[in-house]
Design goal:
Elements (H helix, E strand, L loop, with lengths): L1 H56 L6 H16 L11 H25 L3 H4 L2 H35 L4 H7 L18 E3 L9 E3 L1
Antiparallel strand pairs: 1-2
Helix pairs in contact: 1-2, 1-5, 2-3
């Protein structure tokens, strides 16, 4: 009876451990999937910028410095990569990635403010469509980053508690870093387009 009880205990412990391992895998996969969504919306925004630059360049006398800032910020954002197959587990890497992406958000916001001085450009339908798509992208970025942080919180909260922490340590599963809250990164730039009003850039 003692032997049978011991065998039953080992079997139950094994099944319990397998269950925790599978749960860790599911939560980690959910984080990786949400990270892919974050990358997708950032890429969508980056893909819009060449057309935006081309449209703005056509405006007579447009301020070149601001346009160059956008081009440079896009280059920095697209060149800053997370060298992992899934979601990052290095806080420094994610911080560098976020800084580059936030820099592009800021450059775009400044560009939209400068555009207020060019009525012909504001009236350009192609620019209006691009501006709307960029603001939509900023909103999507805010949503996907928030969803990512929620997935990370769920994952970290599970693997850092015993007994899941023991299984996580055995399989070398590490806690994931969060996107940090910043003043501009998770808010879409909003520019007043009505004529006769004072140009202003605010954040939603």
């Amino acid at each position: 009876m003692i032997l049978l009880g011991l065998v039953a205990f080992v079997v139950l412990l094994f099944l319990f451990t397998i269950g925790m391992n599978n749960k860790i895998v599911r939560k980690s996969t959910a984080v990786d999937g949400q990270w892919a969504n974050v990358q997708s919306v950032y890429q969508r925004r980056a893909d819009l910028i060449p057309n935006l630059v081309k449209t703005v360049e056509g405006a007579a006398g447009f301020e070149r410095t601001t346009l160059n800032e956008v081009v440079g910020a896009r280059a920095a954002a697209t060149q800053t990569k997370i060298e992992t197959s899934g979601a990052p587990d290095d806080p420094q890497q994610l911080r560098q990635f976020q800084t580059a992406q936030d820099g592009l958000s800021s450059a775009l916001s400044r560009l939209l403010v400068v555009v207020e001085q060019y009525p012909d450009l504001k009236a350009n339908k192609n620019f209006q469509e691009l501006q709307a798509q960029l603001e939509g992208s900023e909103n999507r970025i805010a949503v996907e980053r928030r969803n990512y942080n929620e997935k990370v919180q769920d994952y970290n909260g599970y693997i850092l508690q015993f007994p899941a922490s023991f299984v996580a340590s055995f399989r070398n599963s590490k806690a994931k870093p969060f996107f940090e809250a910043t003043a501009d990164a998770e808010k879409a730039p909003q520019v007043q387009f009505e004529f006769g009003k004072t140009p202003a850039a605010t954040n939603r």
